[in-house]
Amino acid sequence: MDKVNTRERIKTAALTLFAERGFVATSIGVIESAAGLAPRAGAFYRHFKSKEALLEELAREKITETPDEFDFDGLQAFKDTRVELIALARQFEKAAERQRPYARLIEEVRLTTFGSAFEEEANQAMLDALSDWVGTKPAARGRGRKRVAALALSIFGGWLFYLTKRNQGVELSAIERDVLVEEWAAVWSGVLDASA
């Protein structure tokens, strides 16, 4: 078996096991078995320094949204703030759907030694990307970086609250998703397209 294939098999098996059983409750031997490797024969350690190193790699690749997957540069092609907002809302929704099976694992990542720094780094990267996008709009003219970041957070906070509640299984019966997206995009595009 080639090294890359084995590494990917370990990651795939571990992600499934971590989501089902939890990180702490999953041993390296169980991961090796699930990946089709002989347990405790050392294959795992040829690819990963530790179970924590594997978790960190999985967290970076699989369970957090990154600015790259949102294609902020491609938004400029729309030339319509409302359409851009809807595209960003859909990207956040896709990320939330992708993360849903890993809710337990995300909580475990937060408890690791790298979790706090990792979460801060991921959140800052996304806030920076959102702020850069907001900074291209008329409403951002004359505002400092901190004010633009505050505006970006204000814009996306309500949508992220809705997605979080939906992922938690909380029924918000008074809210219809399509109506929410349309109203949210209409309001915030009006704000963003107005001069500061």
Name the helicity range: over 70%
CA-based shape: elongated
Largest sheet: none
Distance between the termini: 60 Å
Measured on Cα atoms, how large is the radius of gyration? 20 Å
Estimate the mean pLDDT confidence: 90
Counting structural domains, the number is 2
Strand content: under 5%
Q: Structural class per helix/strand content?
A: mainly alpha
Describe the structure.
By secondary structure, this protein is mostly helical. The chain starts with a helix and ends with a helix. The chain has two domains: 3-61, Arc Repressor Mutant, subunit A (Orthogonal Bundle); 66-193, no CATH class. 70% of the residues lie in helices and 0% in strands. The chain is built from eleven helices and no strands. Helix 7 (81-99) crosses helix 10 (145-167) and helix 9 packs across helix 10. The chain has helices spanning 3-21, 28-34, 43-47, 51-62, 67-70, 72-75, 81-99, 103-110, 115-134, 145-167, 177-193. The mean pLDDT is 90.
